Amino acid sequence: MHLLVTGGAGFIGSNFIHYLLRTYQDVRITNLDNLTYAGNLENLREAENDPRYEFVKADIAEAAQLEPVFADRRFEAVVHFAAESHVDRSLHLGVEAFIRTNILGTQKLLDLTRAHRVPRFVHVSTDEVYGSLDDGGSFTETSPIQPNNPYAATKAASDFLVRAAAKSYNLDAVTTRCSNNYGPYQFPEKLIPLMIANAMENRPLPVYGDGQQVRDWIYVEDHCRGVDLALRHGETGAVYNIGGMHDVPNLEVVQQILHLLNKPATLITHVPDRPGHDRRYAMDATRISEELGWAPQFDFTAGLRRTVDWYLNNRAWWERIRSGAYRDYYQKIYQQRS
Ligand code: NAD
Ligand code: TYD
């Protein structure tokens, strides 16, 4: 099976490529990514010399860059991860890049997929499109779409464009919506890698507001397995929720990280809350479990231990990131907040 994977140099995309290469002998992967701040070819070092893998640098929002990639190959599916993915950036640095990549870029990919008759399109989306929950219940695939931050709004728009392409043109599209991922190669601006890296350097751990916001955490490999099942066996037009079944307040996650690293709780620093901060996410993943036989294989304690170990063993990877673009970004958002 020859797949076009977009955003394969990012966190989940690179884990997905590694997952496919070790799971299937007969897979071919074209990784299309324009290497934004979040794209890093170091994530794919092990795949670089694999004859089943190739990298193409291109922007999904530029049809002229996509056209030759589609024209020169016979893809059997597109698996679409490429996105601007960080809520805080969408809040503090402006939403234009999110609109361009997440909305316009998704539409360009849908157009090319249709024009070149690629048989299947898998759209990787997020639980954030559903908005926030109060105390009870969890999101199902039929929950209302009520995004509360600019990132989530652009992902919701992309979900609707995928739906529209399926309805209007019979495009064979499947959408997955997953909860918060963690694991190797996650850019250290997201909660878990940021807290691990700060704790390792004895820097303050910035917890937004009271830290009682709840997220459902999933180990990235479990998400990758869900996307792969949706790709191979998902029903045309379907949406599948994927969740780790581990809903926990942020403060508890941070405390567990400190415990694993043997660092003091005094590093925790409460900072002003994120504007419009969603209080709670929880996923009902019954559909993918019953229809496709998916279940998470990593419990949170084991997954977090593996993740902490990875950041301990790959210090050069995140130190290089933190000494460059990342530092400028944090200076900018902290200036705006104070
Ligand atoms: P990431 O930010 O780590 O990676 C995004 C990748 O997309 C990068 O390699 C970047 O270079 C590439 N990219 C960005 N704009 C591009 C463009 N215009 N053209 C080509 N490539 C471009 O993101 P991630 O955390 O790996 O998320 C991947 C996907 O999964 C996203 O669609 C995101 O919405 C979704 N998702 C993420 C999570 C999570 O917890 N991280 C949860 C659910 C869904
Ligand atoms: P994040 O990893 O940015 O994912 P998302 O916003 O997509 O859920 O944040 C996870 C949670 O952690 C969210 O409730 C915001 C919170 N958070 C902090 O408290 N401090 C931080 O420095 C960051 C980055 C996030």
Task: Label this structure with key terms.
single chain; 338 residues; alpha/beta; Rossmann fold; 7-stranded parallel sheet; 3-stranded mixed sheet; 12 helices; 43% helix; globular; binds nicotinamide-adenine-dinucleotide; binds thymidine-5'-diphosphate
Written account of the structure:
The chain is built from 12 helices and 12 strands. The radius of gyration is 19 Å and the shape is globular. It has a domain at 2-181 and 218-245 and 277-298: NAD(P)-binding Rossmann-like Domain (Rossmann fold, 3-Layer(aba) Sandwich), CATH 3.40.50. It has 338 residues and is an alpha/beta fold. The model has no long low-confidence stretch (mean pLDDT 95). The strands form 3 sheets. The chain has a 7-stranded parallel β-sheet with strand order 3-2-1-4-5-6-10, with helices on both faces. It has helices at 11-23, 63-71, 87-92, 96-115, 150-169, 191-200, 220-233, 250-261, 286-292, 300-313, 315-322, 325-337, and strands spanning 2-6, 28-33, 53-57, 77-80, 121-126, 173-178, 180-182, 205-208, 214-219, 239-242, 247-249, 268-271. The longest helix is centred in the N-terminal third of the chain and has 20 residues, at 96-115. The site of thymidine-5'-diphosphate has 12 residues, from helix 6 and strand 8.
